[in-house]
Amino acid sequence: MQAFPKPQTRLWLLALLLVLPLASPAAEVLPSWKDGPSRQAIEAFVTAVTRAGDKDFIPPAERIAVFDNDGTLWSEQPMYFEVLFALDEVKRMAPQHPEWKDEQPFKAVLENDQKALAAAGEKGLLQIVGATHTGVTTAEFNANAQRWLAKAVHPRSHKPYTEMVFQPMLELLGYLRENGFKTYIVSGGEVAFMRAFAEEVYGIPPEQVIGTTFVTQFQNKDGKFSILRQGKLAHNDDGPGKPESIESIIGRRPVFAFGNSDGDLQMLQWTTAGEGRRLAGLVHHTDGQREWAYDRKSNIGRLDKALDQATGNKWVVVDMAKEWTRIYPGDPDQSHP
Amino acid sequence: MQAFPKPQTRLWLLALLLVLPLASPAAEVLPSWKDGPSRQAIEAFVTAVTRAGDKDFIPPAERIAVFDNDGTLWSEQPMYFEVLFALDEVKRMAPQHPEWKDEQPFKAVLENDQKALAAAGEKGLLQIVGATHTGVTTAEFNANAQRWLAKAVHPRSHKPYTEMVFQPMLELLGYLRENGFKTYIVSGGEVAFMRAFAEEVYGIPPEQVIGTTFVTQFQNKDGKFSILRQGKLAHNDDGPGKPESIESIIGRRPVFAFGNSDGDLQMLQWTTAGEGRRLAGLVHHTDGQREWAYDRKSNIGRLDKALDQATGNKWVVVDMAKEWTRIYPGDPDQSHP
To answer: A171: how many CB neighbours lie within 10 A of its CB?
Structure first.
């Protein structure tokens, strides 16, 4: 009986193992992307900047890739998911706030009064976000966000929100990381809300999530430490706020940036204005069948100025309807509809 | 003539190469640390939290280690090095500011008038920092900091400032990184000033440097993009500001923290109050011969409350004079003075 191959055979096996990964056919890259212009541009970029000796080579430490979240990595209709979270939180918290029964905009939320809610406008929305996002410790807020994400479902798809992430973008994140990129979220969403699911869903750790922030305060109550979220905005991570937070927090200009709306314009401009080869991309919501179709006139995720800029600057514009074979994880392959 | 060994020999060599790193005796860890209480505590911590199956095991993603900079990673006497930078910058910029000849605190700087400078107090210092750190783009400020770091020398040692980093702490940073820790700077210093040397000197990339920040503004001048540093503080990364920025930027509680002054107290408290095994340490400046000796009464890097807390909480307190065999890179080994 011979439990193991002879030493010499074992060495040959070892050598084979070392060689195999190079010789085996590469697994298909970006399987949910049709072989269209966007996929070709992304693959050409990654191939060039990671090939030692290429004139466009970028050292691994500088391979910073930034992604907007709402509308870029997951859906954002009929309303930003974080706003839907805030509305649900008002209902959950209502028993502790009997005064909300008679106080707008909370009354409108509790009575599902869409008209009164719309009338409350942006000011009302900020009140709702403030009431549900601040006045608690960072640990408490994280627990609230986690609880909601685990239970809540989207009003149309009836799926958990974390299943409404874009499968092609998950593949893009993975493809970039396999090629030595550090993937970041840079989003108008509140940073702690996104961190509650970004690591599990996108594989993006908390320290690579950048977003809107509230002023916080370190507290020491008899040796019990906490960090209180206060009702004052520290940074609005939208529009010009995106390159500002990138410079402040990453301290290095990205080489790859993806967004979907005018709020991402400055991030894409800042990225592509750097020296050397860069890629900027936009997810264009063209698929009214499988997702939503909207751009220049939408109140949520308006894509107008950035779409004009994309044409002039040869940015990648992903036509969701034409270029993605599936939208969400688990969707059937619709390569040939 | 045989250019290469025979195939079979090559395979044996290959096998040997694969086995060697495991079989060779481990290189000495922390060579500039005497085998004293601090080194023992650090090694015991790292061994426990990285050993699979150990009750104290910490997954790699959670191995966040934070370090203060001034007085912890490099010296800070007779004044924070960044202040010395600001004073030199006033002199460099003086030709563009003829009004400074007659205007305090700038007049005092230009005339090396220590008394008038001291009289200008903290307000004067803030004016000097503001004038030299803001009103320029982030690219311009980085160039200014780099230029100074490349040329300036310390008034006593006559060494470049970047050679006044602590060799034992460089070894500690490397030891932690080899064990899967992500090393961060969390310092009262201005973030862009530290980033100008942190990657080269400490091996800490810009995105792992957290510090005091100014408000910035994204600018688009006829399609030329820049980020302007404005004369308004955005975040003061000292004392309670440290756990606040850790929570906001890293989003994960550190498991290892090192500081040297009362400004680090809250960072150490926040770190050690987390669940599971943690290590907090203080560099105690006890070496008036090789560096400087100061603690409870110093205006720079005062260590008073944190020293009391260290005793009660069994934090590591590094006695520089007794525990470090060398202070700066290139110093002779002084294990047996």
So the answer is: 18
DSSP alpha helix (H) spans, chain A:
7-23, 37-50, 81-93, 106-110, 114-133, 138-151, 167-178, 191-202, 241-245, 265-272, 305-313, 320-323
Chain B positions touching A244 (Cβ under 8 A) are: 216-218, 227
Q: CATH classification of B30-77+163-323, choosing from 3.30.750.24, 3.40.50.1000, 3.40.309.10, 3.40.50.11540?
A: 3.40.50.1000
pLDDT over threshold 50, residue A23: no
CB B307 within 8 A of CB B146: no
**Edge-to-edge strand ranges of the sheet holding A224-235:** A224-235, A209-221, A182-190, A64-67, A256-259, A279-284, A316-319
Q: For residue range B2-47, what is the model confidence (pLDDT) as tens digits?
A: 444 444 555 555 555 554 444 444 568 999 999 999 999 999 999 9
Give A334's pLDDT tier (boundaries 50, 70, 90): confident
Which superfamily is assigned to A29-78+162-323 in CATH? HAD superfamily/HAD-like (3.40.50.1000)
Q: Which of A61, A243, A269 sits opposite B205 (nearest CB)?
A: A61
Best to test chain B binding among A18, A210, A227 (most B CBs inside 10 Å): A227
CB contact under 8 A, B18 and A14: yes
Sequence ranges of the domains in chain A: 29-78+162-323, 81-151
> Are B14 and A12 a contacting pair at CB < 8 A?
no
| Distance between CA atoms of residues A52 and A313, nearest Å | 27
* Overall pTM > 0.95: no
